[in-house]
Amino acid sequence: xxxxxxxxxxxxxxxxxxxxxxxxxxxxxxxxxxxxxxxxxxxxxxxxxxxxxxxxxxxxxxxxxxxxxxxxxxxxxxxxxxxxxxxxxxxxxxxxxxxxxxxxxxxxxxxxxxxxxxxxxxxxxxxxxxxxxxxxxxxxxxxxxxxxxxxxxxxxxxxxxxxxxxxxxxxxxxxxxxxxxxxxxxxxxxxxxxxxxxxxxxxxxxxxxxxxxxxxxxxxxxxxxxxxxxxxxxxxxxxxxxxxxxxxxxxxxxxxxxxxxxxxxxxxxxxxxxxxxxxxxxxxxxxxxxxxxxxxxxxxxxxxxxxxxxxxxxxxxxxxxxxxxxxxxxxxxxxxxxxxxxxxxxxxxxxxxxxxxxxxxxxxxxxxxxxxxxxxxxxxxxxxxxxxxxxxxxxxxxxxxx
Length: 402
Hints:
With 402 residues, this protein is of the alpha+beta class. It is 33% helix and 22% strand. α9 runs antiparallel to α10 (291-304) and α10 (291-304) packs antiparallel against α12. The chain is elongated and about 100 Å long. The relative contact order is 0.09.
């Protein structure tokens, strides 16, 4: 949300008090309590303005400055509104000194909460026009439904800095859409481009065409402009230590299908086939790694990693004696360190991304990737994969065939 300019604040300050504006001429009497009630109400945003509410301190009811001295102590006192523990969950509040209408005024700006209802001392406050009120049961129900709507998985959240033109229409119409129709995910009809994007969760809605995280991952050639960690880092190390010479490296990003195909090409390029002509009457050929197992593990890493609040990529580091694959984000939901990889144990941090990978044919069945990788490694003579499950990452080491 764009902050209000001083001109906008001045207009709000002198306008009639509304469900976006509260004025207090000082902090005397019950003003601190009333300010907290107003902050709680603005955070709940019952009218669904999706705009910040503003509390002016040092302003009379008629919008004129009261002459209150705006000191550092007063600003610190106002900042305590957010941190004193009385408003739960803590709202996003900024406190600043502004020069408005020729006088200094303290301004509290309150952003609407993503997870309402917000409570002040256990009560849900809302704005009803220019006044504060305790929410009714119906009000609380509306706020709770809004929270459930906003608590969508991260891969369904909007990317506010992206626009529809950042998504590749050619990739969607020539690759994703035919696959979705073939798999009965989307029917053939005369929907517009935006309507089809919305139906496949690539944008928020046809009338709100903001790309989602899923849309950026699946369709944007410039994925890292919006999700800095959304790429795969590949290293081929000649040796067994990270500081040994690097013979191949790649930063693989772009639309999802290109990323997965390009990492497949890297895997294929470095797999070697050994030939044994002494152990049997006919030569025995064995690959150092089964490509299918590596595909399953890399695709799992891309599917289940966290894309939120991290710049870390999926890392594939290929040594002479092993391959290490590291995925940002620890176990999720019902998956824990003690049951990680167990048959039938699966949960999805990115359920929409998982569905998109299935539509594109990179995943056939959910929850079986690790089991398939284990079977293919065993058949090829490789040791079982070794998993390192930590709170913030999941790593797997695959060792070369015996």
